Amino acid sequence: MEVVKISIPLSSLSWADSASAAAIRHACSPREALILFKSRLRRRPPAAASLPDLYDSNAAVFTLKQCSAFPVASESRIFPSFHALLLKTNLLSCIHVSSALLHAYSLSSLPNALLLFDQILNRNVVTYNTMITCHARRGNIAFARELFNQMPQRDVASWSAIIWAYLHSGNPSHAFFLFREMNLAGKTKPDPLVLVTMLSSCAGSSSSALLGKSIHAYIVRNRLSTGVQLGTSLISMYAKAGCLNSAFYVFEKMPDRNVMHWTAMICGLAVHGHCDEALFFFERMKPAGIMPNEITFTGVLNACRHAGRVEAGRNFFSTMTDEFGLEPGIHHYGCMIDLLANAGKLDDAFSMIRSMKIEPNVVIWTSLLSACKRYLNFEMAEKVIAEVLQITEPNDDGGVYTLVSDLYALGGRWNDVQKVRELMDRLRVKKKRGCSSFIDRDGLRSKVDSSYR
Length: 453
What we know:
InterPro entries: E_motif, PPR_At4g14850-like_plant, PPR_rpt, TPR-like_helical_dom_sf
GO molecular function: RNA binding
Order of helices and strands: HHHHHHHHHHHHHHHHHHHHHHHHEE
Strand content: under 5%
Strand order of the largest sheet: 1-2
Protein name: Pentatricopeptide repeat-containing protein
PPR repeats: 124-158, 258-292
Radius of gyration: 29 Å
GO biological process, one term: RNA modification
């Protein structure tokens, strides 16, 4: 299919403000939008039938975008019907129309997207980027990379799409390799969202932070604006990796700090057990005019949990609702249960679980059960076991059965140990495989499977 390249004057974009556009915008279904578009085409002059009209081509793109916004569009035959109409009216020869249809297919039907892509002879950067994203969304990384390698020209969206594809599929090492390659090319700058995703994959260890520092250097070197998301990701990356001085440096350099920046610092300090520093940052928030959110309190309670500050944790948990009107979530309860249980206050932990406004999950009960094992409180353990086994999934929570078995063994209840083991065999309980990772000399992350835990 030969595609006609047409430059669209800005005046033609006024179609979006027309009465026809308003009707399509308020259509109740993709099929209704298509019917309205057809009625618009019936009013075109007969002489224009052989040549794509800019007004009609913009109408086609607009309608395709509206249809793509409907969740049911992917379940109907609306796009093949639209495809047939565009062929009949010769509108598909416009590159921006064929690109819009390709994007619509990429969201609903990979076979149709592949067929249309093969029919477009004069492919451009947009069509390639659409297909790369389409394959990446479905986990077809090899196909996405093959298309990327075939591209005669690449723009920032091309690099961003393939880098995101590797990050989304859990291959950060390939993503960082491409990032370096793009840096060497020196012609494009990645999308800020890709930088945010890459920084998120760096968080967690000092070795990974070396890669994060290279991204930070790139941001500084290219004078990229560190908006809310990018600034928060930098702080979070450094803080979680234990590079607290670097995190504080980025934090202090932020011109307009908001709750996300403060929260990133508090959570990073909490993860590494710096309770006093985390609480110091929290106390600074209110004078600075920043109100904490639910995530902020997760960081604060986590800091108290790491330091064993039971009374402080209780006070902050109450403050969350009484002063700031925030309802505790599962993570807040999890921190408090863990804090109380680790301090040996098993009865208080059990009472809090019973008073929860939301349903406790396996993690909550297992936290208390682990404390029962540590403090050899078999009476409380019996209560917890009765609760946790009711909600345990054999394929996901194999460690719970092992913990129950260990508790019975510590109490010398070998008959019960045998019953748990037989239950595990009958339910085919699986224990999750552990895995370790390391950064090689090229700065790429590798993974090594270990034995079952």
